[in-house]
Amino acid sequence: MEPSLLQQLAVADRQWIPRAETLPNGAIRYHYRRRADQPPLSVAELRALIANPPSFGAERLAIAQLLTVLAAAGVRLELTEPRKLGAAGEWDPQERTVRIQPRVVEKGSAEFATVLNHEAIHVAQSCRNRGVRSSPRLLGLPTVLPDHLAGVLNEPVYRQASAHEQQLEREAFANQARSGLGAQLVRQHC
Question: pLDDT of 131-158, one tens digit each?
Fold first, then answer.
């Protein structure tokens, strides 16, 4: 799955590269997508990105490394709908399986790396509690959510979660953007 997955992510990454369109009157219109946690870009920033587009190679490398670490811990990745309705991904310790929605692949390497890192934190939470098939337990990581995620635990997918499950999610959300952390934690605890 890994080479195919990384190839699909590379294709999806193209959507994050801005482009310029010359209008009939000679004016230039810029088209770009931005993530929820990013401020709008200036024309100068857009021009710079067009001239030097991001490769997302670091994100794909982090994904490949994390997949290797997860496999070594006995964890499988499935690109399928999570059983938890509305979730982008989920960790199932009983089946030693991380499930990630296929639509996450379509969002590109940065989004996929974040979701996979989030789920790897849950894997490490399980390993800290007697092993990979155990229920997750807090790791003691910082739990301050970034501004763009402040309301995430109020979303329908988490409303029925117990206080403990919400704490586990808070810990994973607060640290999911820390590239390499999931691999480090799985190595350390599994």
Answer: 999 999 999 999 999 988 888 999 988 8
Residue 22 domain boundaries: 2-51
User: Which amino acid is residue 43, in one-letter code?
Assistant: V
Spatial neighbors of 157 by CB under 8 A, at least 6 apart, are: 84, 85, 86, 87
What pLDDT is recorded for position 1? 64
∠ CA 165-167-172, nearest 5°, is: 95
Q: 43-95: per-residue pLDDT in tens? A: 999 999 999 999 999 999 999 999 999 999 999 999 999 999 889 999 999 99
Do 98 and 122 fall into the same domain?
yes
* Pair type for strands 28-31 and 19-22: antiparallel
The tally of domains found in the chain comes to: 2
| Contact predicate 93/136, CB 8 Å | yes
Q: What is the C-alpha to C-alpha distance for residues 51 and 45, in angstroms, rounded to an integer?
A: 10
Instruction: Check whether residue 151 and residue 123 sit in a common domain.
Output: yes
